[in-house]
Design goal:
Layout lengths: L1 E8 L3 H12 L1 H8 L1 E9 L16 E2 L3 H4 L6 E4 L7 H10 L3 E4 L2 H6 L1 H11 L3 E2 L10 H8 L5 E7 L2 H13 L3 H10 L8 H4 L2 H15 L9 E2 L7 H9 L2 E12 L2 E12 L11 E8 L3 E8 L3 H17 L22 E11 L4 H11 L4 E7 L7 E8 L2 E2 H13 L3 E9 L4
Parallel strand pairs: 1-2, 1-4, 2-3, 4-5, 5-6, 8-10, 10-17
Antiparallel strand pairs: 7-9, 7-11, 9-10, 11-12, 13-15, 13-16, 13-17, 14-15
The structure holds L-homoserine.
L-homoserine (HSE) binds next to helix 8.
Length: about 425
């Protein structure tokens, strides 16, 4: 039996889940893996605070040195969250030769180069399955199981909070603010929801996923990001009528040396596997040149799902004969990321219901080479004689669509209310 001493950095919900899973699975791990884990120190903010799970009081500490400078600790598990001081602590642990297992997508995606360099310098391992999509083993799949593939692209629902909100907006026809308020009341959304609803959380995760998928660093600053705060129940309903379902999608594509990485509200055909991913569930749909299409689905957050990924990384780290780090082409500064991608677009306008208006709109689109695939006029004219026009375009360049719509708006008769990208249509 190999004994491995570990130290925790942080012990909130996730740390508590890891503690419980380690205790619950102790005998299984010993029998199957010949490993015995001993938690030597647990860094917490307040050592006097009551904690569940029978964590012995004497292993709690509020000094990071007790974990980072303890030569007996071989593996550090980090679940403090946030960029700092977590990133500095991870780097110090790696430079001290300690392997790190972390759930921290923010520290990892914003300090990837330094952390990788520190691990390379000492030969320590850096494991981060839990940083993206909780329990779903998508990192392990990209780094191990799919190595014989050139991944051409991936699309993911990688933020559970926004998927929960959009699912309820679609089911109930409710406004974003109302569902968010309810989700906060139920403890399903954070009191400060910015990281989730503005797409930051998904952007950190997409930086990690796309870097591994394309073997090239896609820095988080280069990930295009748009949140769900401006999504309306009317857009969702119009999309549903056209056979489309709205999701906050993380999209990454590669074509030769060109990469695109973006997080934004996206319609997918309601028949697409991602359309059926509801509530707080996560999923990643990818395509490899040899494996074809596949989808990973599961729980992306929560104490035990996240602990599942962390403890499995811990077992892998403790049994690995040598640690493997991702190799990136194109250097640590990253690849060049495209900002003028092509996509299908859903466009909703409010326009005067009179002859010639539609022809002008179509003319502006045609003038910028934006083809119209379908169009519906919705409802009766309102008090100002205006109606809703909804278009779905053929695949077009983002800049061309923006230029066409700016011209439409200049006419004064038509105002553009929503522009939502559509993926999953060949
Ligand atoms: N807040 C994230 C989500 C979970 O809603 O999916 C942690 O990454």
């Amino acid at each position: 039996m190999k004994q491995v001493n570990i130290g925790f950095l942080g012990c909130g919900n996730i740390g508590g889940g890891v503690w419980r899973l380690l205790r619950e699975f102790e005998a299984e791990i010993a029998r199957r893996e010949q490993l015995a884990f001993r938690v030597r120190r647990v860094l917490v903010r307040d050592v006097s605070k009551a904690r569940g799970g029978n964590i012995p009081r004497e292993i709690l500490t509020d000094s990071p040195e007790d974990v980072l400078a303890d030569p007996e600790i071989q593996i550090v598990m980090e679940f403090m969250g946030g960029e700092e001081p977590a990133a500095s602590y991870i780097e110090r642990a790696l430079l001290a030769g300690k392997t790190v297992v972390t759930a921290n997508k923010m520290a990892l995606s914003t300090h990837w180069a330094e952390l990788n360099a520190a691990a390379q310098k000492t030969g320590a391992g850096l494991y981060f399955e839990a940083s993206v999509c909780g329990a779903i083993p998508v990192i392990r799949a990209l780094t191990d199981s799919l190595q014989a593939n050139r991944v051409e692209g991936l699309m993911g629902i990688i933020n559970g909070t926004t998927n929960y909100i959009l699912t309820r907006m679609a089911r109930e026809g409710s406004a974003f603010e109302d569902v968010l308020y309810d989700a906060q009341r139920l403890g399903l959304a954070e009191p400060d929801p910015t990281a989730d609803v503005e797409g930051y959380d998904a952007a950190y995760k997409l930086s990690i996923l796309s870097s591994l998928a394309f073997h090239a660093h896609v820095p988080v600053e280069k990930v295009f990001r748009e949140g769900i705060t401006r999504v309306t129940p009317l857009d969702i309903a119009c999309g549903q009528e056209m056979g489309l379902t709205l999701k906050l999608l993380a999209v990454a594509k590669r074509s030769g040396d060109r990469v695109e990485a973006r997080v934004h509200p996206t319609f997918v055909p309601s028949t697409h596997p991602l359309a059926s991913v509801s509530d707080a569930f996560n999923a990643v749909f990818l395509k490899g040149h040899a494996c074809g299409e596949m989808m990973f689905y599961g729980r992306g957050a929560g104490d035990m799902p996240t602990a599942s990924a962390l403890v499995s990384d811990l077992i892998k780290a403790a049994s690995a004969p040598r640690h493997k780090l991702p190799e990136f082409f194109g250097g640590a500064d990253g690849v060049s990321v495209d900002s003028d991608w092509s996509s299908v677009y859903f466009i909703r306008m409010r326009a005067q219901d009179k002859p010639g208006v539609l022809a002008k709109v179509a003319g502006c689109m045609a003038g910028h080479d934006v083809g119209i695939a379908s169009m519906v006029q919705k409802g009766e004219p309102d008090a100002e004689g205006r109606v809703q026009l909804v278009f779905v375009t053929h695949s077009a360049h983002e800049r061309a669509v923006r230029a066409a719509l700016a011209e439409v708006e200049r006419s004064g008769e038509t105002s553009v209310r929503s522009v939502i990208r559509v993926e999953g249509i060949e």
